[in-house]
Amino acid sequence: MNNDAEAAYEALIQFLYRAPVALIQLQQEGTIEMMNPMASQLLMPLAPHGDLGNLFSVLGPYADDLQRLCAGFAASHGVICEGRRFNITSVQPQAGAPTVLSLGLLKVDDGRLMAVLADVTQEVAREQRQLANRLASAARVDGLTQLPNRAGALAMLQRIVQRPRQAAADAGALLFINLDRFKHINDSYGNEAGDQMMVLVAERLRSTLRASGRSPGEDTVGEVAARVGGDEFVVLLDRLAAPAVAERIAARLLDRLSKPYQLGGHELACSFSMGIVLLDAGMGHADADDLLRDAAIAMTVAKSDGGDRYVVFHQAMRDQAIQRGGLAADLRNAVERGELFTVYQPVVGLQADGQIDRAAGVEALVRWRHPVRGLVGPVEFIGVAEECGLISAIGEQVLAVACADFVGWQRQLGAHAPRLLAVNLSRAQLAQPGLCDRVSAILAATGMPAERLQLEITETLAAQGKDIQQQLLGLKALGIKLALDDFGTGYSSLSSLHLLPVDTVKIDRSFVSAADTSRHHEVLIEATVKVARSLGMSTVAEGIETVAQAAVVCRQGCDKGQGYLYSRPLESAALLAWLTAPEPVRAP
To answer: Can you give the residue ranges of the GGDEF domain (predicted)?
Structure first.
């Protein structure tokens, strides 16, 4: 061997000797022939009695697997495995001892192997920390929208309320946002479209907040949106100059979110309800969950006020929500126990000679006889029924009972029985698929003639989308009459009345109550009657309470009237007595 070769060989030996990884030459069955100091350092703590004769034996529980791996490698040379990790236990544990080794095996020829061992304990620990961080981050991110989720929002909210305020004007706010009628989108276009809608809403929230130019600071949140439920979002605002800024941001968000959305070839106009909780000094001990609940309560108030608005939370709302929560539980029990009952308010025919036709019809109304509170009016519980999803069940229950009663009256009274039964339809009922089938089943079960049934919907509801129109047309196809309730209070106008598939227009009590004192209201009644009549529709004046009001609606040609002047709502037995009373009530 010449000098250069000797020098190169010596350099190789020195490299192998000083290499920071363990290098081992061994026979096919694991017997160690040579190893460098690093190999001895790594393996010695693992060797029983310090015996480093066989690598596979030193690796203990993994010996059989490694021997099978080597025996199964048929090639004359090549890589058998690399980066194979082993969790190990030292015979004599000591601080800093390796717990995870990485092994690579190379077949040199038919009889010899080379092994490379490395201590990857710290690398594995670092990977585990990174994985834990990624999992923790993922646990706080909504998978659909990539916004922070409920857990992430609560953590940021807690940071805001616990941060010391630097000035009285150093305010924050929590905005709770809910899409009005999101269930309608899912029902009409499918869950996939609903998910896409959530992605579009999230992007609008991001872009609107980004446009504000307010970014988080070292100890602040800035403006952050999060998705906390199916169609529920929150916006966290920090470092506001004044609480009023929160309302300006809320108004901007509502305006931006309410622009039409393009979804699967459809243009959807949506509205949103928003609740605001102001975060100010003195809230350091406030609980984030409680604040989120308060914001949700304010959002519910905004929704019950008609939606498409924001409402700022105040303490009285929480007290009312607690009361409503108790009422909701009682109402659920009431539906099951049959505490709800149906009453009927007469609808009389108005005749030119001042006589009234008592048998023109009745309107079915629901009441609640609470075992403790006594009689609970619909104003108190209908909103609760809508919120807790009971309104459809109650509506169908009222329809079934009323139809059965109506058929019974025909048998009892004959020509003196009411000729038409009016029953209200809720928004929830109209939004449900299969409504026509369920109504048809009730008609069949009770023997109720379809042409004697009039279903009433509010003006606002009738003016909504094509799906509502399709439901209404389906009901008319059964032979049922439709009435537009509370006309004059919603979005429709006389010029668009012909677009609605209704047979009767019910003029709202707010017009009737001022008919005898306001020429303006009388003219509106007159115009409504004329337009309805030209379209082949009949009219009903609601809320007639005085003889003077009755005189006006009669003079303007209303076909029917309803109100306390004629009768309050009556239970079935009392209604029968009213219908057969000897003295008729006269309209002047």
So the answer is: 170-315
